[in-house]
Design a protein that fits this description.
Blueprint: E1 3-5, H1 10-16, E2 24-25, H2 40-58, E3 63-73, E4 76-78, H3 84-94, E5 98-109, E6 112-124, H4 129-136, E7 158-163, H5 165-169, H6 173-179
Parallel strand pairs: 1-2, 1-3
Antiparallel strand pairs: 3-4, 3-5, 5-6, 6-7
Length: 184
Amino acid sequence: MKVILASQSPRRRELLSRIIADFDVVPADINEEVKSYFTPMDYVLTMAAQKAAYIAKQYPDDLVIGSDTIVTIDNEILGKPTSRERAFQMLRQLSGRTHKVYTSVVLMKDDQESSATVPASVEFYDLTDEEINRYLDTNEYVDKAGAYGIQEQGALLVKSIQGDYYAIMGLPIATLYRMLPDFD
């Protein structure tokens, strides 16, 4: 049995390598559009499950790991910014406030499925326009939910966190590690 990570995220690849030495990466091509009828927790779990299911259909004998991460504030899902201007707006919205990050992980093999959603809270410092623009100049915001990555220069925006740091990065490895024995 192979293990397959259904993600193109370099962060997830790096984190998974901390607990599984040998795995393949096969990104799932799914529509990640946020529909208004989704709650944030429903959305993140649905996306992780769709990623896993998409790849599991192609590799039914292997263990497939799907994951998704979202940032929410005021019950609004802040997806990946489509432009620098949108990234600026997102960071302005998060400035001086606490927001939630949810990461779901779904494991699938044959007819077996297991899932978990791990929440965390992140409080940002009050950010000036200059600080936001300096961060945006790093281009780290590209392809990041909520327009920041906590593991790099985005750490300078963060005043405090509560919860699983690795869930904020994109893969709750302690939770995943505890799910794996159910799949031999």
